[in-house]
């Protein structure tokens, strides 16, 4: 897993909106700020963080479902953000997305067969009876009968619709799947089935994954590496097991400690979480987490910490990362 398949460098996405009454004013929401990471062939990379931290926006921006404001995204060395026309169409085939909501991601007026055949026709992979046969085989691969081709989305449960969404992503034979909270809208038992399916597809097809999730248990089980986001920035990155077991950034530690653990031996009150998440339209100066951080020093209020390499594949954006590392060693 050493060859970079996808490289993201300095990705930025801001949204401009208006607010206030009676006097309206323009507000800039800094959804994604200076995001950098890479995904190797066959690797599963996780983006985790609280709701509103920018992880889904980042996933859509690197796929150009929304256009980023700045940064570079390279697919096997080719500049994805500079691609146009046929070149962009060819790159889109290599990267597909599975959306969070299986109820809104399928056209209710389109049969399942039509939804699966359309991408094949658009990319010139198959048409007619051949495309229909491929669609039936994909349904079987995700655990649904070929008879589902002639049915409509409303005839399926949420878990079945998500399987259809996965089959649709596979129609163009991608190398990278962006899974944006793929199980958060499903029942717990169905979540396990869908996650097992994704892992089987990864192993069988050699797929790479960018998994966007707020569920640390899911990321720990599925991903090789993980990046923790806060207010649009990565604050810690590294091997999933190490980051989630012994995080070095105070926010990553808070996120880990607030996650439920089904272990009676570790039963107890959840840690007290101080403060509220600042607005992305008005982030605090310096380290964005310093108003809520128990390790903050005066320099944290004025200096934005860079994402530093601490060895063993760990990168942390914290001025006191070494002090915390000594405590958890």
Write structural notes for this entry.
- The protein is of the alpha/beta class and 329 residues long.
- It has a single domain, classed as P-loop containing nucleotide triphosphate hydrolases (Rossmann fold).
- The protein is built from 10 helices and 12 strands.
- The strands form 2 sheets. An 8-stranded mixed sheet has the order 6-7-8-3-9-10-12-11, with helices on both faces. The chain has a 4-stranded antiparallel sheet with strand order 2-1-4-5.
- The chain is globular and about 70 Å long.
Features:
329 residues; alpha/beta; Rossmann fold; eight-stranded mixed sheet; four-stranded antiparallel sheet; 10 helices
Explain briefly what this protein structure is.
This protein is of the alpha/beta class.
Protein topology:
Elements: E1 4-19, E2 25-40, E3 44-48, H1 55-62, E4 70-75, E5 78-79, H2 85-94, E6 95-98, H3 112-122, H4 128-141, H5 158-170, E7 176-180, H6 188-205, E8 208-213, H7 216-222, E9 225-230, E10 233-239, H8 240-245, H9 250-257, E11 308-311, E12 314-316, H10 321-328
Parallel strand pairs: 3-8, 3-9, 6-7, 7-8
Antiparallel strand pairs: 1-2, 1-4, 4-5, 9-10, 10-12, 11-12
């Amino acid at each position: 897993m050493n060859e970079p398949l996808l490289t993201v460098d300095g990705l930025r996405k801001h949204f401009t909106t208006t607010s206030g009454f009676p006097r309206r004013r323009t507000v800039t929401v800094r959804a994604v700020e200076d995001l950098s990471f890479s995904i190797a062939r066959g690797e599963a990379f996780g983006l985790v963080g609280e709701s509103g931290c920018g992880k889904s926006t980042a996933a859509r921006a690197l796929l150009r479902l929304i256009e980023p404001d700045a940064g570079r995204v390279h697919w096997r060395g080719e500049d994805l953000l500079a691609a146009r026309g046929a070149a962009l169409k060819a790159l889109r085939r290599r990267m597909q997305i599975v959306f969070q909501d299986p109820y809104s991601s399928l056209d209710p007026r389109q049969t399942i067969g039509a939804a699966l055949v359309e991408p094949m026709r658009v990319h010139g992979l198959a048409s007619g009876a051949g495309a229909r046969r491929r669609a039936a085989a994909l349904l079987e691969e995700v655990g649904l009968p070929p008879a589902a081709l002639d049915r409509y989305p409303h005839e399926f449960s949420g878990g079945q619709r998500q399987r259809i969404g996965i089959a649709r992503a596979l129609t163009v034979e991608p190398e990278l799947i962006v899974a944006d909270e793929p199980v958060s809208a499903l029942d717990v038992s169905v979540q396990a089935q869908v996650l097992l399916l994704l892992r089987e597809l990864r192993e069988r097809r050699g797929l790479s994954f960018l998994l966007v999730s707020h569920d640390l248990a899911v990321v720990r089980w599925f991903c090789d590496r993980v990046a923790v986001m806060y207010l649009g920035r990565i604050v810690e990155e590294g091997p999933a097991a190490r980051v989630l077991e012994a995080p070095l950034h105070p926010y990553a530690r808070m996120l880990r400690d607030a996650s439920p653990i089904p272990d009676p031996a570790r039963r107890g009150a959840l840690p007290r979480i101080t403060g509220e998440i600042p607005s992305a339209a008005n982030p605090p100066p310096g380290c964005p987490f310093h108003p809520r951080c128990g390790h903050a020093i005066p320099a944290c209020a004025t200096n934005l910490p860079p994402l530093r390499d601490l060895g063993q594949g760990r990168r942390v954006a914290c001025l006191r990362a070494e002090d915390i590392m000594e405590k958890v060693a």
